[in-house]
Amino acid sequence: MKKIALSVLFAIIGFALSSTVFNLQHSFLIGILVLLVALWTNEGLPLGVVSLLPIILFPSFDILSTNETASNYSKSIIFLFLGGFMIAIATQKTELHKYIANKLLSIFPSTTRGIIFSLAITSAFLSSLISNTTTALLLIPIAMFLTNDLSLKLRFVLAIAYGASVGGIVTPIGTPPNLILLGFLEQKGIETISFVNWIFLAAPLAVVMLIFIPFILSLGAKEIVLDKDIGKPVSLSGEQKRLGLILITLIIVLFVNSKIEPFYSGLGINEKGILLGYGLLMFVPKLGFLEWEDARKIPYEIIFLFGAGFSIAMAFSETGLAEQIASYLLALTSLPVFLLILLVAALVTFTTEVTSNTALISIALPIIYSLGEAAKIDIQLILFVATICASYAFMLPIATPPNAIAMSSGAVKVKDMAKYGFVFNILGILSITLIALIYWQFVI
């Protein structure tokens, strides 16, 4: 009860402070947001319970109606997660992740630091080719298998989650905010960033983050004692071969389906449908691997978490709080370019922590666009900074899909993610700002 009481106190303070700047409805929304973040962080209530609170609180304080709020818990992206979780459960059931783990350990050093680097780099590489959500879903069972030590599980799972976020920015197809930016540029009649140019822009930042994040995660970690069977050559069973072939076809379909402008227009199939379709395939007799009872292992609290994120984003938009914040930001246009980019990077990064990055960037891009026009700086540059920062929020599970999937593993507590994530947020903000000023503004 102490944690709940403390969260309510923080919410009241947040409401009181915001009421000096915003109207009553906006202040209520900010107070509720503080309450949710506090409860997610101190775990005063279960994650799923906190994530369902907007359905009660938003109508109670006249922010959104019950129907408007509840509709966010059935967004189409949630079915992408359902499909991905089904595939991940099948991978664990067939123990295919053990085979993949053995292969990984035959390539990289089997020290704790070597494994953390290998997991982060593998995750980042795959996330540049397929979505970071899918990558995290496929790799985290491997991290959970490698050790029984809880502190090492935490570091391994975070290495995959953070690696997926880091790699997701390397190509336009790695994470949804990238595609949202390209669509926004096209809508505004601004020249879009080509697939190849995007890689040249984002790759240096990803390399920097892939050096620092695994290194920091490995600091103070005990040396791993691998299970005697891990690292030994193993052969694939019939079930594992069948699932392996299905996963290979999934990766091929996802890659072939991806649009690579201006060279290839893709198949045009919705990725959410592909993931759900492959997930349901896991239940087909003689082809799949799951019974309906296995569906109980799906972490539904993570689905509720994303529903909460979309609800918060809708509340910001529908109540006009986003526009109100934008009007205050316009006062910053007289600042030097360095400070303006730094503030945009910090604002987007930390705001993304309390809502999904996909929902946040949809709201933020029009705001940042107006800010860039008023400040008379390169529009592409400042929008690119904002978009990358939307994927580089590492503190809370609601911020990005890989963070949420890391929480679903059971190896990560919100307070642990927040502790490491704050350091990586600061690292990301500084790295993005410096690279934007030293490199991006001369290339974009």
Automatic annotation (TrEMBL):
Segments crossing the lipid bilayer: 28-57, 77-94, 114-144, 156-175, 195-221, 242-260, 298-316, 328-348, 354-372, 379-400, 420-440
Stretch forming the signal peptide: none
Domain Citrate transporter-like: from-to ranges: 38-388
Keyword Transmembrane helix: yes
Gene Ontology molecular function terms on file: organic anion transmembrane transporter activity
Topology within the bilayer: Multi-pass membrane protein
Subcellular location: Membrane
Pfam families in UniProt: CitMHS
Major location (coarse): membrane
Any one of the GO CC terms: plasma membrane
Any one biological process term the GO annotation gives: carboxylic acid transmembrane transport
Keywords: Membrane, Transmembrane, Transmembrane helix, Transport
Protein name from the UniProt record: Anion transporter
Species this chain originates from: Halarcobacter bivalviorum
Lineage, broadest ranks: Bacteria, Pseudomonadati, Campylobacterota, Epsilonproteobacteria, Campylobacterales
